[in-house]
Amino acid sequence: MTKIGFIGTGLMGQGMVLNLMKKDFEVQVWNRTKAKAKRLIEQGAVWTESAKDCSTGVDFVITIVGYPKDVEEVYFGQNGVFEGSKPGTTVIDMTTTSPKLSQKIYAKAKELGLSALDAPVSGGKAGADSGKLAIMVGGDKEVFQEALPVFYALGENIVYEGSAGAGQHTKMANQIAIAGSLSGVCEALFYAKKVGLDPEKTYQTIRTGAAGSFQMEAFMPKMINEDFDATFYMKHFIKDLTIAKEESKSRNFKLEIMEAIRTKCLKVQDMGYGDQGTQALYHYYVLRRLNKKAFRVKTECFFELCCLMQQ
Question: Which of these is catalytic: 171, 245, 254, 292?
């Protein structure tokens, strides 16, 4: 039986672990917060006490954590993956992270007699739960071929993109495309409401035409119903777009539309909605004027208070 160490049992990781176990993989897990692994332990996953322990005695190590700094710590830190993995193990980072970090992991793995793949995913929590993720993979092609049974337990559209870091670069292209599409959905709904259209009727009309998209299907109904629960966190979307900005800047080109939308997302996070789903971008269009008005009111009150204090 193929044994897998799985690190990161959050929004995405839970469904992924359950799907691996359904395919009869033996899975041991670790997460910084044990409570987030409780359901998996009850279903038969084996709890370990550190990333090092989770990486010990397995054929594959899969990581899907939050930010590049988390990836760095999980692999290179004390009690990390590289301390626990034996030669011959394949480490697969499925976090969306920096392509440069993926190349660093690949080089270190080679040095230790390990194999490494970067394999970020698209499809959100729904894709993770259903086992229908899109998986974009970078690394050595022969290692990719050996890992296919693992990938097919997690997703459907699995593509070898090229050398180390290529999976991450493909994910950047994916997130850049989402940014424009998501913003378009927000603006379309905002326009419909401002001119007096019925939002639901508008959605049902335009969803089947040329404007139809995954982002519209997934999120316009949620925006209409004011459902901003996360299937993919806004704060993680900002992280992804920031990586795309850094990568483009390092190559001396600009992504004007992506950067404009990233700025809007940052403002939404500043409003306090970073832990909501990406559909929270709609708050930017609805609340920005309210926030400006509130700021003016606070400023006027402060000015009046100063005048009173001087009297």
Answer: 171
Distance CA 228, CA 41 (A): 29
Quote the tokens at residue 262. 């990233």
Q: Which tokens sit at 221? A: 């109904």
Can 171 be counted among the known catalytic residues?
Answer: yes
DSSP state, residue 233:
B
Nearest-10 Cα torsion for 126, 129, 133, 135: 130
pLDDT tens figures, 194-230: 999 999 999 999 999 999 999 999 999 999 999 999 9
Q: Which residues contact 98 (CB under 8 A, 6 or more apart)?
A: 68, 168, 243, 246, 247
231: which DSSP letter? S
DSSP state of 90: E
Please state the length of the chain.
311
Set out the domains of the chain in order of their start, with CATH numbers: 3-162 (3.40.50.720), 170-294 (1.10.1040.10)
Of 272, 282, 268, 254, residue with least CA distance to 183:
282
**Structure letter (DSSP) for residue 44:** T
